Amino acid sequence: MGAGQAVIVGIAGRRGSGKSTMARYLAERCYRVLVWDPMAEHRWVPNRFSSLERLEQFMAWASGQSAFAGRYVPETAELTGDFEEVCELVYDYGDLVFLVEEVPMVSTASSLPGQFDRIVRLGRHQGVSVIYTAQRLAETARRLTAATDYFIVFQHHEPRDLDAIADRCGREVADRVARLPRHGYLAWSAVEGAIVPLETVVQELRKLSRRDNPIARDNGVTLADRQAYGTWGRVMSRKEL
């Protein structure tokens, strides 16, 4: 990844629609990933942290890796403070895909936390792409949706939700979303103003998450065999764990 190269992908769907499965599908195909995981759902990620100190140690180690996947699972009721500190680390280290589950849990329809707002506005300069999920676009900060490059929208029927989709993607898209089957979805590009194949989103995220850095250590990692962060930074594959 490099300066000026990043995208924001928003995934919207009701509980049980498949949006977290979609988020995993996208993130698993990226090379350098950090997940904000307040529901502790992303067990596919080999490196789990609930300590900000340990997360910072991991990020320092990960900055030298060609591929990694880590997740932060907050253990306090006050989510916003932890989220702000995680966002600060994400911005400072850069060159990764940041998956934020249930973004309305740490924001409002009218505002974003300061450090996340910085990522949304300036993250492209740090090579930070964002994937976020939300049950309803109507509850998602306008500043975030205005900066979103791709929307992946699951079936919706509530008029307010369809109006929010129409406001961001157009009435034709909202009408198509209302006719989707259960667990159905479509991907819409804000740049092209058109529905696009999901593979278009996958390929762009995958390309942007690949770090072409000659000093980064590859360690034979593949997308199917993630690195895990061991004691003092020892690298282990899933097969070793």
The helical percent reads: 25-40%
Radius of gyration: 17 Å
Strand content: 15-25%
Number of helices: 8
Biggest β-sheet, characterized? Answer: 9 strands, mixed
- What is the molecular shape? globular
Taking pLDDT < 50 over at least 5 consecutive residues as the criterion, the unreliable ranges are 213-226, 230-241
Question: What sequence of helices (H) and strands (E) makes up the elements?
Answer: EHEEHEHEHEHEHHEEHEE
CATH superfamily membership: P-loop containing nucleotide triphosphate hydrolases
* CATH architecture group name: 3-Layer(aba) Sandwich
What structural class do the secondary elements suggest?
A: alpha/beta
Secondary-structure blueprint of this entry?
Elements: E1 8-12, H1 19-28, E2 32-36, E3 47-49, H2 52-62, E4 68-72, H3 79-93, E5 96-100, H4 114-122, E6 128-134, H5 142-146, E7 150-154, H6 159-169, H7 171-178, E8 185-189, E9 194-196, H8 198-209, E10 227-229, E11 235-237
Parallel strand pairs: 1-6, 1-7, 2-4, 2-5, 3-4, 5-6
Antiparallel strand pairs: 7-8, 8-9, 10-11
